[in-house]
Amino acid sequence: MSFTTKLKVHGFHLDSFGHVNNARYLEFLEAARWDWLAASDCMQVLQQEQVVFAIVNININYKAEARLGDVLDISCAVGRLGEKSVQLTQEVRRERDQVVVADATITFVFMDVRTRQARPVEGRLRELMLAAV
Fold first, then answer.
1. Predicted confidence (pLDDT) per residue in 18-38, tens digit
2. HSE-up of residue 56 (Cα within 13 Å, Cβ side)
3. How far is Cα 120 from Cα 133, in angstroms, rounded to an integer?
4. Is the pTM above the cut of 0.85?
5. Are 17 and 66 in contact (CB under 8 A)?
6. Model pLDDT for residues 50-59, shown as the tens digit of each residue
7. So what EC number does this one have (predicted)?
8. Contact criterion met (CB below 8 Å) for 89 and 79
9. Buried b or exposed e, range 36-46, using 16+ CB within 10 angstroms
C-alpha cells in the first residue's frame, strides 16, 4: 500500500539554476515520511514504546526538474521488511504531468531511545509495517 502527500515548490527550494536544489529532496522525502507516519497509528506506537526511527541509508535518483510553483506528489511505500530494518521506496512526481522527478530507497531502523540501540521490528510496529506493504 502506498501513501501520497503533496508539497508545493517555493522560492527557497530553488538553486541558481531555477530548479529545486538536490539537497532539498531530502527534506521533501522526510516531510512525506512524517505525513505517512502521522496518517497511521505508527507515531502513537513509537511514543508508547519509546522508539524512534533512524535512517541508515538513502539512495536518490534525480530524473527531471521541479521548478517554482510545481506541486509535487510524494509517495511512500514499504518495500522490504527485515528483522531490524525497514526499506521504504519513495517517489516524487510533478502533479501537472505525473513525470517522476526523483525516486529514492530509504532504509531505517527502529531505535530504542533508552538504550540507543536498534531493536527488532516486532509486535505492533511490525503489524503496522506489514499493513503498509
1. 999 999 999 999 999 999 888
2. 13
3. 18
4. yes
5. no
6. 999 899 999 9
7. 3.1.2.-
8. yes
9. bbeeeebeebb
